[in-house]
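ok so heres the complex, two chains, lmk if somethin looks off
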Amino acid sequence: MKFGLPLSIIFHGLAVFGGLLVLGKVVDTSLDMEIISLKIVTIAKQTNIKPTQIKPEIPTEVETLPKTVEDLPIDNSASQEDKEQENQAQDQAEQETATNMPSKFSLDDFTKMVENVRNENPDAYSQKELIGEREIGERQQRGRGEKNDPTLNPADYIRSKMQPCWLIDKGAKNYQTLRVEIELTLTQQGGISMLKIANDTQIIASSNNGWRAARENVVAALIECAPYGKLKSLEYDEWKAMKLNFQPGDE
Amino acid sequence: MRIFQSILYKLIIILIGACLLGMTAHAQLEIDITKGNSKPTPIAIPDFLSSHPQTDQIARDIARVVAEDLERSGLFKALDPTSFLETQTDINYQPRFADWRLIKARALVSGRIVRESSTRLKVEFRLWDIYGGTQLDGIRFATTPDNWRRVAHKVSDAIYKRLTGESGYFDSRIVYISESGPKTNRRKRLAIMDQDGSNPQFLLVGADLVLTPRFSPSAQQITYLSWETGRSQVYLLDIESGRRELLGNFPDITIAPRFSPDGKHLIFSMVSKGNSDIYVMNLRSRSTQRLTTNSAIDVSPSLSPDGKKIVFNSDRGGSPQLYIMNADGSNVKRISFGDGRYTAPNWSPRGDLIAFTKSDKGQFHIGVLNAQTGRAERILTSSYLDEGPTWSPNGRVILFSRASKGASSRSEIWSVDLTGNNLRKILTPGDASDPAWSPVLP
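and the predicted structre for the whole thing:
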């Protein structure tokens, strides 16, 4: 009697869940979804990473030196007229500013003034699209260590690791059709613990002997390139077993 | 009721288990890898071991020729012997694979020569898979000391076959036209050499103008054109016996004879009343059958390996292009559609490709296209004058003639593989042209 109620709840729960699965309409697990693995990003309590500060870039080389004042041709008559015009303009601006300034602070007046300023040059205050500008955060990524690289993608890593090791015989007959499927199990250190040719039956049965040679090239490449140590920065369950499909693509 | 519940519960548990298994299977990482590289396979070929001082040099020479053969294919790179960490003293012991892995060798050839008498040698080798840790092949040859070079080619063929899956071509010959004398009075003689350019020798003593030699499938006979009688006639020459035969005393000019893959027929062009057409001759009955009747110039026929199709060159479309027809002359269709002029087609022994000469914008090229579709044209070489492609017995390499420009120009024989990256010159004693590759020697 003591276990009756919990057992009843468990079995009824299972029955409901199972019923839903059997009916198959409500819970559809066969939906074609892209699975994106998300990792929990933890923040350490203490850090020794100094805040980065982006300083304005200083040009290292001056290609053409600007002319100094002494080098410029002197025309005294012109400069005299310019000076007089400049003084007049400055006096006028000071008078205008003095008349525009409110004698006492008023929020309405201030708002009106801001609007006037904006209306005078609307382009200067509109939002600009940052085309060709440096991405925010680019500077911060560079400072991180390899091991903490959050962008390590096991597929990209394996592909880049295999490229120098996998020798493709491009003169073999129909070489682009010679697909070799490998089931690979790795140790926690990234070494190979099991390597199986998944489509070996197909390869052996084929009349194209080049396929067998392609298979041996793939196996040799996998052994030569091992260990795959960088994967250690990821969860072992994520990469301990994988299926690799080798098939030469278009150039 | 209880039985029904029990069955239902079991079903539910099985379903849940199956779902969990399915989820686990979905979670396995699957990666498609499409990019590798075309670098040659590193292979270690130490000098063969010798049991007698008189065979020491042969042991070194065999290893050298094997290394040269494999490197010339473009698929292998013989590693520097100074990098070897292990010195084998007996080929019957398994090598230390770890030592060979350190120098990045993918395969190891260990061989030895046993002198059985002054006129008899035993040459044996083992081919090891370094990363697989297994023996891939092991063969023993019995021969005479002066035949060591051919044994080396046989060893190369066996290694090539085991590592690429395709037959080797090193134990084969090249027949070609040896050219000498001034341009205005060129002397062209029939000559033969090994596929690597060694052992060159003339086949005919006369000074008659000889052209377009082609091997029979048995590699024992050669058909060629000669002006011995004052006009172009087709001859048959047996290499071993030196016996010659005139094949049909045609009143008209015959061009470019070539054997059928079964060796029972000869296919060629004949010019009659200003029109060139393609004919086939039964070598047993000597009866001749005309295959094309078009008013255009139809020349350079070449049969497919199965003998069912013929590729030839015709200007029936306005410019020289490549056409395919059935072996009886029916169902003609054009297969080349690119710019320029296509000539000298040659069907690959593998059956998948057709090699051709192409001239376009002042340059000559050797190229290949798909034999079935006529598409996927690939140009492999370009120069002032590249012409007359001929296939290696395994359909992986093409030989051709190359001539340079100018008064001091030379005619040479070159080879290129199907990637177009492995372009090599075949060393000949003098000028050479119009090569034809033999099948692998029996």
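quick notes: The first strand of chain A starts at residue 180 and ends at 186. thats all i got rn
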